[in-house]
Amino acid sequence: MTISNKRSRVSGPLEMTLGALTAAAILGGCSERHATETARPGPATSVAIAAPSLPGSGTPAAPVPPPTSGETRAAWREGVTLFERGDFAGASARLKLAAEGRSAEPYVQYLLGLSLWKSDDLEGARLALERASTLEPGSIRTWINLARVRLQGGDFQGALQAADSALAIEPGSADALHQRGRALTGLKRGDEALVTLTRAQQADPGNGYVSNTLGYLLIQMGRPAEAVPFLEAAREKLPRLAYVRNNLGVAYERLGRRPEALDEFRAAVDAGDSEGKAAASLARIEAPDRNAATTAEGELGTQDGTPVALDVPVAQDQNSH
User: Fold this and answer.
1) Residue 50: inside a domain, yes or no?
2) What is d(CA 233, CA 236) in angstroms, rounded to the nearest whole number?
């Protein structure tokens, strides 16, 4: 894998992954496991602490010493390798030890945060990325990914603050504008979100994720006709993402374009449809007694309109590196 040294800007899906792996360049080409290295338990601290007393013993357990420099180097090498392989749980375990020995190095905390996030430890990821942002406040990629983690956790105000910190570093960043728009959407500040997401789309017209989020917002604002061009552009870039196809199907259905809506819902089901929303829409509008002219907002629709997938389900957010 070619590892990029671009750490100052997040500009696209693969660049974030490659950027996250620049740490491999500092390993000096050495990938052997340290002969005496073993995984150590304990909190992320460089100071030895006494463990609690053993039950019934009356005496404290032996203190857990911090990792040696050799153990830290080995853990870092292995953590980076596992991250590159996509073994995020394994990478998290090794990077925790590396972060214990290199607690003042922001990039170690950053990569640990990504590994924890991708292994579904949202709280651990948030804490690691917050440490990284404190250690290196000028890192735009740290703020952008912290915004993503906070968004997933439902902290829209915190996500907005993180996105604004990224924009203070690079005002025209499409990725930072995208996360800001998502945060504003979560805060129900639709008009501001629309302005921000329009800026993001103009900054990176070929970004299918931004186009999908912009279309999603327009559907939520009751403007499906305006959503369609953006969602069709997203489909062109991301034809195998179920939530993109589902959102386009929703827009078509609300405009009375039933055959096209059915095609999109079927495509979403074929693409995985992890949330089951496209399948639910198919079952609803393919019912034998369904009036073909009735849309999602009609009598036979759901109470709040056709279900719309999340704009960026985290498992499929390819801009998260």
Assistant:
1) no
2) 5
Residue 315 has phi, psi (to 5 degrees) of: -65, -20
Cα(261)–Cα(269) distance, rounded to whole angstroms? 12
Distance (Å, rounded) from C-alpha 248 to C-alpha 229? Answer: 9
Q: Which residues pair with 64 in a beta bridge?
A: 49
**Cα 65 to the center of its chain, rounded Å:** 35
User: Could you give the number of structural domains in the chain?
Assistant: 2
d(CA 215, CA 257) in angstroms, rounded, equals 17
Domain range for residue 122?
A: 1-45+68-136
Task: Identify whether residues 106 and 10 lie together within a single domain.
Answer: yes
pTM: 0.72
Does the pLDDT value for residue 317 go beyond 60?
Answer: no
Q: Is the dihedral of CA 248, 253, 259, 261 positive or negative?
A: positive
Helices within the chain (DSSP H only): 13-20, 69-85, 88-101, 106-118, 122-135, 140-152, 156-169, 174-186, 190-203, 208-220, 224-237, 242-254, 258-270, 277-285
Average pLDDT in the 175-197 region?
98
Calculate Rg over the CA atoms of the chain.
23
Token digits of residue 204: 């990176």
- Residue 308 scores a pLDDT above 60: no
DSSP 50: P
CA distance 154 to 157: 9
Q: What is the DSSP string of 293-315?
A: T--TTSTTS-TTSS----SS-GG
Rounded to an integer, what is the distance from CA 135 to the centroid of its chain? 21
Residue with the two structure tokens 């601290």: 45
State CA 227 to chain mean position distance. Answer: 23
Last residue of a domain, one of 87, 114, 136: 136
**Residue 203 · residue 174 · CB < 8 Å:** yes
